[in-house]
Write a structure and sequence with these properties.
Length: about 120
Amino acid sequence: MTANETGLFGSHVLYTPYQYKVKRRMDYSDTEKRKLANRLSRLRGQMDAMRLALEENADCTALLQQATACRGALDGFIATVIEHHVRQHLLDPKQDAAERSKAAEELIHVVHAYLT
């Protein structure tokens, strides 16, 4: 991974598998940020529980149920971020056609990477 493949988000680095730099920021309200952060906290708790279950040789079924719960939580997070991206960058009439087209291509790449 090269420096050209990273985007900055606050003090953290987001790694993207694309050949473009992440240039636009998402403008989340405080409420939206709190909801997303809470969703990630629940996901982290689920992941920690899954690791503990694995270390304790938990039943396979219980481990798989926890894994599917993690996937569901992550899918919900992704859906929320995609929805926000569409509303802010594709449907916003203040964005010019070129910016909307670029945002659409970025979204297509992300969704394609997620589904394949």
